[in-house]
Amino acid sequence: MRNIKLTIEYDGREYHGWQKQPNRLNIQGEIEQAIQTVIGEKVELIGSGRTDAGVHAFGQVANFKIESDFPIEKIPIAINSQLKKSIRIQKAEEVEENFHSRYHCHKKTYAYIIDNSQYGSAIYRNLTYHVSQPLDVEAMKQGAKYLVGEHDFSSFKSSGTSSKSSVRTIYNIDIMKEQERVVIQITGNGFLYNMVRIISGTLLEVGMGEIPPKEIELILKAKVRQRAGKTLPAHGLYLMNVDFE
Amino acid sequence: MRNIKLTIEYDGREYHGWQKQPNRLNIQGEIEQAIQTVIGEKVELIGSGRTDAGVHAFGQVANFKIESDFPIEKIPIAINSQLKKSIRIQKAEEVEENFHSRYHCHKKTYAYIIDNSQYGSAIYRNLTYHVSQPLDVEAMKQGAKYLVGEHDFSSFKSSGTSSKSSVRTIYNIDIMKEQERVVIQITGNGFLYNMVRIISGTLLEVGMGEIPPKEIELILKAKVRQRAGKTLPAHGLYLMNVDFE
């Protein structure tokens, strides 16, 4: 069996998330269907992880196995021809047979984009989250430092998940001011349900002066969801890339 | 009478252009209606110029006159409260009574954004024009030089306009490669109907190797629309800013 690794960009607005589910438009299902149409084999597309309804990806990674000798260099254009333009296969590579997008995922980077202009951008209104109050980016950076490392992130997860452990490692958090945007970029070995959106919501409150930076340490230690900030909406969140060992 | 100058951002996709017209959603009409609702006066909103259906603006400028002493600093938020989020007033300034957005417009800058990635961006698909063939940006820069200056741009205008003269001055054309995008930015004292989209379409053919750069000079001199390239679609075009004397 050949094992094919895809790098995928999508606009999450039209989809009920990555995961396949009946009667609701989803990214995994759309791509599996496209592969079956062009390659003629029913496949299981294994994503590096789910993204929720409305969340975007520049670099989601997924793999699938086929018997076909369909040329690797023609796979993106062939699959894309069957997809709406809100999903684009950006790359296809043949990888070794034991490669698994979820098990071998080493780290992931997400970005949360805040439009910090006074009145909000008309053009990017659906691709960023607008906050008019000017944010204190230095305070956000200070607060973010407490989250880097291996921690129990129970305070930063929504209920309704079945993860056994709430311990994850965050390798890095960058808070970047780019013109009128504030971008929170987080790299970790894995993320709990809504974790990036809750961390972003909490750091946003730090930036607004509602939470002192050092309180992040206490929120983390409390291991209680209610202590952290609100879950920011999906449309500002992007899965940027996935790294493998 | 107070004279109020607005700087306006809009996502052109939902509108049949700037100009007021019955039974078709347009930007001028939407803003005039919003002003009337919040200030209570029927106004004429004078734009620096029309933008066509589907064209975006980061910095359209328009002015209107009122008797009301409505505080200037509250005007953007008040008007925005009555508008869909695809139009945002970004700035309001009180200007001298004789200021006229169209007559006093000194120069305008438009940008045409080409997504030059292999398969096209899913996320920016409606905000850029996708061309997969890698473009020769140096050739495009060479070709663009022939267009700078005062010229008769008859070769670069669509029919159906009533402009008396086809002579315009282009002050500057920048062709910028920004990651996988190629941005054509043009500053001039005014533009004929579809002029920026036809210039962009012609420079695109230069970038694709279909027209040698120096042929731009011959196309310009021919003063025949058929000699130039195709009119690129509206959704890649942005009115960036308007300068006044």
The CATH topology of the largest domain in chain A is given as Alpha-Beta Plaits
Mean pLDDT of chain A, as a whole number? 96
Biggest interface reads:
A-B, 23 and 23 residues
DSSP E strands of chain A, number:
10
CATH architecture of the largest domain in chain A: 2-Layer Sandwich
Work out the count of structural domains of chain A: 2
Which stretches of chain A are low in confidence, meaning pLDDT under 50 for 5 or more residues running? none
Oligomer, anyone?
homodimer
Tally of separate helices of chain A: 5
Question: What's the structural blueprint in terms of helices and strands?
Answer:
The structure is a homodimer of 245-residue chains.
Chain A: E1 2-10, H1 27-39, E2 46-47, E3 56-66, H2 75-80, E4 87-95, E5 105-115, E6 129-130, H3 137-145, E7 149-152, E8 167-178, E9 181-188, H4 195-207, H5 215-222, E10 237-244
Parallel strand pairs in A: 3-10, 5-6
Antiparallel strand pairs in A: 1-3, 1-4, 2-3, 5-9, 5-10, 7-8, 8-9
Helix pairs in contact in A: 3-4
Salient structural properties:
globular; alpha+beta; homodimer; Alpha-Beta Plaits; 245 residues; ten-stranded mixed β-sheet; 31% strand; 2 domains
Description:
The structure is a homodimer of 245-residue chains. By secondary structure, the first copy, chain A, is an alpha+beta fold. The first copy, chain A, folds into 2 domains: 2-95, Pseudouridine synthase I, catalytic domain, N-terminal subdomain (Alpha-Beta Plaits, 2-Layer Sandwich), CATH 3.30.70.580; 106-244, Pseudouridine synthase I, catalytic domain, C-terminal subdomain (Alpha-Beta Plaits). In chain A, 20% of the residues lie in helices and 31% in strands. In chain A, strands 1, 2, 3, 4, 5, 6, 7, 8, 9 and 10 form a 10-stranded mixed β-sheet that branches. In chain A, a hairpin with an 8-residue loop joins strand 2 and strand 3 (56-66).
